[in-house]
Amino acid sequence: MIIKTIQIKNYKSICDSGELKITKLFALIGKNNTGKSAIVDAIQVFWGTKGKELKPSDFHKGSSEIEITVSVGPNDGTEGSSKAKDQTKLVFKATPQNLKGEYSNGKSKVTPKRETLPFPNF
After folding, report:
1. What is 2-116's CATH superfamily?
2. Are 53 and 99 in contact (CB under 8 A)?
3. pLDDT at site 117
Protein backbone atom coordinates (compact mmCIF):
# COMPACT_ATOMS: atom_id res chain seq x y z
CA MET A 1 0.00 0.00 0.00
CA ILE A 2 1.14 3.52 -0.76
CA ILE A 3 -0.32 6.95 -0.15
CA LYS A 4 -2.19 8.11 -3.27
CA THR A 5 -3.69 11.42 -2.10
CA ILE A 6 -3.89 13.57 1.02
CA GLN A 7 -6.01 16.57 1.97
CA ILE A 8 -5.46 18.63 5.12
CA LYS A 9 -7.93 21.11 6.61
CA ASN A 10 -7.37 23.48 9.54
CA TYR A 11 -4.01 22.07 10.65
CA LYS A 12 -1.33 24.54 11.75
CA SER A 13 -0.78 27.04 8.89
CA ILE A 14 -3.00 25.09 6.45
CA CYS A 15 -6.63 26.19 6.03
CA ASP A 16 -7.34 23.73 3.18
CA SER A 17 -4.57 22.11 1.16
CA GLY A 18 -6.91 20.83 -1.52
CA GLU A 19 -6.29 17.29 -2.68
CA LEU A 20 -2.54 16.66 -3.01
CA LYS A 21 -1.75 13.82 -5.40
CA ILE A 22 1.26 11.80 -4.34
CA THR A 23 3.46 10.29 -7.04
CA LYS A 24 6.63 8.20 -6.91
CA LEU A 25 8.60 11.42 -7.07
CA PHE A 26 7.06 13.90 -4.65
CA ALA A 27 8.75 17.03 -3.33
CA LEU A 28 7.58 19.85 -1.09
CA ILE A 29 9.03 23.08 -2.41
CA GLY A 30 8.20 26.56 -1.17
CA LYS A 31 9.26 29.63 0.75
CA ASN A 32 9.82 29.51 4.49
CA ASN A 33 6.67 29.39 6.65
CA THR A 34 4.37 28.19 3.86
CA GLY A 35 3.33 24.84 5.39
CA LYS A 36 5.82 22.28 4.06
CA SER A 37 6.58 20.90 7.53
CA ALA A 38 2.88 21.07 8.45
CA ILE A 39 2.10 18.61 5.63
CA VAL A 40 4.68 16.14 6.94
CA ASP A 41 3.46 16.66 10.52
CA ALA A 42 -0.16 16.07 9.44
CA ILE A 43 0.80 12.74 7.87
CA GLN A 44 2.52 11.76 11.14
CA VAL A 45 -0.56 12.79 13.16
CA PHE A 46 -2.76 10.73 10.84
CA TRP A 47 -0.64 7.59 11.25
CA GLY A 48 -0.38 8.07 15.02
CA THR A 49 3.38 8.61 15.11
CA LYS A 50 4.69 8.85 18.68
CA GLY A 51 5.53 12.40 19.66
CA LYS A 52 3.12 13.90 17.09
CA GLU A 53 -0.01 14.12 19.24
CA LEU A 54 -2.28 17.07 18.58
CA LYS A 55 -2.19 20.19 20.73
CA PRO A 56 -4.75 23.00 20.90
CA SER A 57 -2.21 25.27 19.15
CA ASP A 58 -2.27 22.96 16.08
CA PHE A 59 -5.74 24.21 15.06
CA HIS A 60 -5.59 26.75 12.22
CA LYS A 61 -6.45 30.25 13.50
CA GLY A 62 -9.09 29.23 16.02
CA SER A 63 -10.81 26.63 13.84
CA SER A 64 -12.91 24.02 15.62
CA GLU A 65 -11.98 20.89 13.65
CA ILE A 66 -8.90 19.41 12.02
CA GLU A 67 -9.57 17.03 9.14
CA ILE A 68 -6.90 14.92 7.44
CA THR A 69 -8.01 12.68 4.56
CA VAL A 70 -5.62 10.07 3.18
CA SER A 71 -6.23 7.69 0.29
CA VAL A 72 -4.04 4.61 0.06
CA GLY A 73 -3.92 1.92 -2.55
CA PRO A 74 -1.77 -0.77 -4.08
CA ASN A 75 1.60 0.08 -5.54
CA ASP A 76 0.35 -0.68 -9.06
CA GLY A 77 1.51 2.26 -11.14
CA THR A 78 -1.57 4.42 -10.47
CA GLU A 79 0.27 6.79 -8.11
CA GLY A 80 -1.40 10.17 -7.77
CA SER A 81 -4.71 8.93 -9.09
CA SER A 82 -7.72 9.76 -6.95
CA LYS A 83 -9.85 7.26 -8.89
CA ALA A 84 -7.62 4.20 -8.73
CA LYS A 85 -9.23 0.80 -8.26
CA ASP A 86 -8.90 -0.81 -4.81
CA GLN A 87 -8.20 2.54 -3.15
CA THR A 88 -9.15 3.15 0.48
CA LYS A 89 -9.98 6.64 1.76
CA LEU A 90 -9.76 7.31 5.49
CA VAL A 91 -10.66 10.54 7.27
CA PHE A 92 -9.22 11.64 10.62
CA LYS A 93 -11.13 14.39 12.46
CA ALA A 94 -10.21 16.02 15.75
CA THR A 95 -11.63 18.87 17.82
CA PRO A 96 -10.12 20.84 20.71
CA GLN A 97 -12.30 18.69 23.01
CA ASN A 98 -11.16 15.43 21.37
CA LEU A 99 -7.49 15.78 20.46
CA LYS A 100 -7.13 12.01 19.91
CA GLY A 101 -9.63 12.32 17.08
CA GLU A 102 -11.71 9.76 15.25
CA TYR A 103 -11.23 7.89 12.00
CA SER A 104 -13.93 7.06 9.46
CA ASN A 105 -14.04 5.49 6.04
CA GLY A 106 -16.74 7.86 4.84
CA LYS A 107 -19.52 5.53 5.95
CA SER A 108 -18.73 4.57 9.52
CA LYS A 109 -16.22 5.13 12.30
CA VAL A 110 -13.06 3.04 12.29
CA THR A 111 -11.21 2.16 15.49
CA PRO A 112 -8.00 4.22 15.49
CA LYS A 113 -5.60 1.34 16.12
CA ARG A 114 -2.53 0.79 14.02
CA GLU A 115 -3.61 -2.74 13.04
CA THR A 116 -6.96 -1.51 11.65
CA LEU A 117 -5.50 1.14 9.36
CA PRO A 118 -4.05 0.23 5.95
CA PHE A 119 -0.53 1.49 6.51
CA PRO A 120 1.53 2.15 3.41
CA ASN A 121 5.05 0.93 2.83
CA PHE A 122 7.55 3.72 3.47
Report:
1. P-loop containing nucleotide triphosphate hydrolases (3.40.50.300)
2. yes
3. 52
